[in-house]
Amino acid sequence: DIFSDFSDLFGGGRRSKRRAEVEGSDIRYNIAIDIFEAFNGVEKNIKFKVASSCEKCHGTGSKSGKAAQTCGTCGGAGKVRVQQGLFIVERTCHTCHGTGQIITDPCDQCHGQGRYEKNKNLSVKIPAGINDGNRIRISGEGEAGARGGRDGDLYVFVSIRDHEFFIRENNDIHIEIPIKMTTAALGGSVEIPTIENSKAKLTIPAGSQTNHKLRLKNKGMVIMNSGGRRGDMFVKLFVETPIKLNDEQQELIEKLDQSIAENSNPQLQKFFNKFKKFFNG
């Protein structure tokens, strides 16, 4: 084996023939959709430029359709060896440009390459429940192979645009809504938007606080390839204090404040107990 390696290094070994086929490269296409399209699934038409098989020569690269011939310069190896002093240097063949074969009558349209760049239209199905950053592989829709080589694949990378209401975490949907101080204290109901692009009535329990979360089961995103199962929806409450009160309203709130017992504000009472303990400690 050692002597064989030395023999090959200095030109004495057998040269393997290079295959004429050239595999097409995979290509990437980025697409952005909104959260409702991600929830329902959508079909999108995309346009892009890609090296495609030449129709005129049927991908052979030859005007007459003749098969490529073995390169006479490199003997089909795609590389030639040149002596520089004591060393043998291997270089890409300048005649066949490394393919090992040559086209004697190149096609006028693709100039012997068997493919050329052109516009391509394609319909892509994006499944319901797809997540941001997921990719869809479409076999054989990438760059065309040359001289009988395999076509590459197309990878469609999906991103989901931010929404003004909804925040997605895996298969759950989160939303924050403001509610009136009176609704938080007394309880009630409010209308909220849903991922189905409709409205739903949400019941607010009496005594609700800011940052309190309400869970709506099975109201989140569709889970991809799960047969229609869904995540949950979480509604975070923000209790808004009223502003621009007139004299009468201020007087009413003052009377309300005076009438509220200390045990009606447990978090406030808990804080002041800790506060007193800290300074008395």
Task: Indicate the topology.
Elements: H1 2-9, E1 27-33, H2 35-40, E2 42-53, E3 69-70, E4 79-84, E5 87-92, E6 101-102, E7 115-126, E8 135-138, E9 154-160, E10 167-169, E11 172-180, H3 181-186, E12 188-193, E13 199-204, E14 213-216, E15 233-240, H4 247-259, H5 266-280
Parallel strand pairs: 1-9, 11-15
Antiparallel strand pairs: 2-7, 3-6, 4-5, 8-9, 10-11, 12-13, 14-15
Outline the structure in words.
The termini are far apart. A hairpin with a 2-residue loop joins strand 10 and strand 11. The protein has 281 residues and is α+β, with helices and mostly antiparallel strands. The strands form 6 sheets. The protein has a 4-stranded mixed sheet. A 3-stranded mixed sheet has the order 1-9-8. The chain has helices at residues 2-9, 35-40, 181-186, 247-259, 266-280, and strands spanning 27-33, 42-53, 69-70, 79-84, 87-92, 101-102, 115-126, 135-138, 154-160, 167-169, 172-180, 188-193, 199-204, 213-216, 233-240.
